[in-house]
Design a protein that fits this description.
The complex is a heterodimer of chains A (116) and B (111).
Chain A (H helix, E strand, L loop, with lengths): L4 E3 L2 E4 L5 E6 L6 E7 L6 E7 L2 E5 L7 E4 L6 E5 L8 E8 L10 E2 L3 E5 L1
Parallel strand pairs in A: 2-11
Antiparallel strand pairs in A: 1-3, 3-8, 4-5, 4-9, 5-6, 7-8, 9-10, 9-11
Chain B lengths: L8 E5 L4 E6 L7 E8 L6 E6 L4 E2 L4 E4 L5 E6 L8 E9 L12 E6 L1
Parallel strand pairs in B: 1-9
Antiparallel strand pairs in B: 2-7, 3-4, 3-8, 5-6, 6-7, 8-9
Classes of the chains: A mainly beta (116), B mainly beta (111).
Chain lengths: 116, 111
Amino acid sequence: DTGVSQDPRHKITKRGQNVTFRCDPISEHNRLYWYRQTLGQGPEFLTYFQNEAQLEKSRLLSDRFSAERPKGSFSTLEIQRTEQGDSAMYLCASSPRTSGTYNEQFFGPGTRLTVL
Amino acid sequence: DAKTTQPPSMDCAEGRAANLPCNHSTISGNEYVYWYRQIHSQGPQYIIHGLKNNETNEMASLIITEDRKSSTLILPHATLRDTAVYYCIVRSHNAGNMLTFGGGTRLMVKP
């Protein structure tokens, strides 16, 4: 399977704990995105990487959230001191970079986080 | 990015065409119309996009009105597997890299 993969698929944690999610993009896709989706809503953009550089961050990305893409390949999203409001589906997407044209974003299956 | 308006839900009989409307009356000249769909428990999936001409691919057709203020996504022969939430997104190629999803239309294909 050469699609975007995310791990874990489900995570249940207690309030105040830290969690980390991993995303493996499609090989050679140099753009990587993180979105968050709550029940009944469309996905909301969190942050974007081009290679290892984090180029955009949403206001939704509070200081408890940090994302990295150390070698321009896989990415991690960490949430510190989780709160119940962090319960959501966290989606990762990747796209290739081709100048002058739109590149569709390929989404992974998501990681569903439940904070108790 | 221009705001879009979609009906919250629609039903369609299996085998019939599903026509999903989207209003984007504030669209500007350099903004494209994109459609994604999200099947339950999966990430969104790109379907099609267009600027002003009608577009067709193996998944669907996109009809954009002449004034570009609205569009329709057409699934010519809907199957049960087309049951999903369909998102209409309007953005320019230079609008940054995020996709701004609205509430979408929940399409239920019924046997």
